[in-house]
Every structure is written in structure tokens, then in C-alpha cells.
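Memo to structure team: turn this sequence into C-alpha cells by end of day. - J.P.
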Amino acid sequence: MEKAKKTNENKRDNSRFFLPLLLLLILVGITYAFWQVAVTQDDPNIITTLACLDTTLTDETDAIYFTNEYPISNTAGMARDPYSFSVKNACDNPVNVDITLEVLDNTSLNHKYLRASVNRSGTTIDNSDIMTGFSTMNSTIIGATSYVIERDITMAPDESITFDLRLWLDQTTPYEEGSDKVANAKIVVVASPAPNTD
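Reply from structure team:
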């Protein structure tokens, strides 16, 4: 009985100590809340998004169509008539353009034997490489392999650039690898906003 009495007294002593402490904490919290001040900015922050991202690709000549092909030298390949196409930035902001050659999935020729060169119209610098020598990116055509044959071309607003594409069978192609094979590919232009330098 005595133990129970002492326990009740301890509880009362504890409540006498903690109750005023609890009331003091509540009072400090309420007082602090009354002393806070909030101010806001006068004008809103505004971000406007890009209004235009539009490029066009126009055929200037017929597509490349060769039959009964055989391996040739780079000099002979660069002397061929090209497929010419124009790329235009149809917006009022600059864009970066990558030109890719997407080799379609119905191609039976090993990509390492197909050689490509792209130049601005009017120049014939031998910058050719086999397809597997170019970097790749995600293709836009299902099942195709996309090779970046010209990278990071910055185009000003309303600018148009004409390019010449040449394709040929690389001179190192063995007979058994190049015989009775087909290569199908399409040019794709991938445009993105040019970084703002302001």
C-alpha cells in the first residue's frame, strides 16, 4: 500500500514539474509565431519557352541509285555525282543540326564496307569514312542504324545550307562480302536549339 502511495506522489510531483514546462513551451511557440514576418517579391519570375524549332530538308538532286557496284578508291568515290540536299532553319532562332545517315534494316551489305562523304555543296574534300567509323545515335527510323556523318552545324535564323552526299563500296571489300548485297540508307536531319551565349 505504501508503495502505491509513493508512486502516486511521484506522478503528482512529475506532473507539477512537467505541466508548467509544457505550458511555457506552448507560450514560447505562440509568441514566436506572432513575431514572424513574411514578405514576397513584387514581380513574378517568368520563363518563356522556345516558340519555334523547325527545319526542312529539300532534295536538290535525285537520290543515289547504283547497280552492279564494285569496290572503288576514295578518289573515284569522291569524283561521283552526289545526292544534293538543302537544310533550312525555318525559325527566327539559331539551331544546331546533326546530319545522320540511317542505314535501313533491309541492308544486306556489312556497314563496314559502305563508305560515305558529306560536304557543303561546291567542295569535294575527301572526309570520307566507312559507316562504322562514324559515331552513332538513336535512330528515327525503326530498325535502322543511325550514323552521324556531320555534327554540330550551327544555323542562323532562316539560313539554308546545301550539302553533297557521296556513297560507294569501300575498296577493301572482299568479293564474298560485296557480292550480291544491297545497301539502303536515308539522310535524316536532327535539329536542336542552339545554346544561348548571352
